[in-house]
Design brief:
By secondary structure, the protein is an alpha/beta fold. A hairpin with a 2-residue loop joins β4 and β5. The longest helix has 16 residues. The radius of gyration is 17 Å and the shape is globular.
């Protein structure tokens, strides 16, 4: 039996002064799979996703990547976040630089890659999301769908094995939503593990290999 790439084992989490967000949640995510977390607001979808790359630490239970429990020291977390890329629901949270090129370069620069490798990573990532030629543009002048693709390119530039998307089509018009989901399909068919959360049961059913329902 193969080891799941990502798993949570009986994890619990409660936000300060809030109700329990997760109570004993166990999920298995296989390498190369397309998985959708589905459930209403407040079901804990985002909380669970944030645990998968160490942004939140469970109160109890364990999160494992490639069979090993996550470690929460800075170095381990940096390595984990390079391998498990997280794209936030709102791209404005993620985009921080004055130009598209600088934003996509942020991750590879922080990984300490040489300048040539950074340039190549940026070029490849922008090509992948269909934004070559946008290098010098200020991100705040872009449409919602274009911003989402810049955020995805910024994660792709670090070449993660897993891509985690919190509500990837939220706030996008139908055409942009369709483009983003096609891009996620391409990423999965290229061998990456892709995990999304969504309210949209139809979308999850159409797109995912497996659906995890949270209540």
């Amino acid at each position: 039996m193969t080891t799941p790439l990502l798993e949570t084992d009986n994890v619990t989490y409660t936000y300060p002064n809030g109700p329990a967000a997760l109570a004993g949640v166990s999920v298995l995510i296989d390498a190369g799979s397309k998985t959708a977390l589905v459930g209403p607001n407040g079901a804990g979808k985002s909380t669970l996703l944030l645990m998968l790359n160490g942004m939140l630490r469970p109160a109890s239970g364990e999160v494992r990547f490639d069979g090993r429990p996550l470690a929460y020291d800075n170095r381990s977390l940096r390595d984990l976040r390079r391998r498990v890329g997280f794209v936030f629901q709102n791209p404005d949270v993620q985009i921080i630089a004055p130009t598209v090129e600088q934003d996509v370069a942020f991750g590879p620069v922080n990984l300490g890659l040489p300048l040539d490798a950074v340039r190549r990573a940026v070029r490849d990532a922008l090509g992948y999301v269909g934004l070559r030629g946008y290098e010098k543009r200020p991100p705040h002048h872009l449409s919602g769908g274009e911003k989402k693709r810049v955020a995805i390119a910024g994660i792709l530039a670090m070449e993660p094995a897993v891509l985690v998307f919190d509500e990837p089509t939220n706030t996008l018009d139908p055409a942009s939503s369709e483009e983003v989901m096609e891009l996620l399909d391409e990423l999965a068919s290229g061998g990456r593990t892709v995990l999304i959360s969504t309210h949209d049961v139809e979308l999850a059913y159409r797109w995912a290999d497996s659906v995890i329902l949270m209540e």
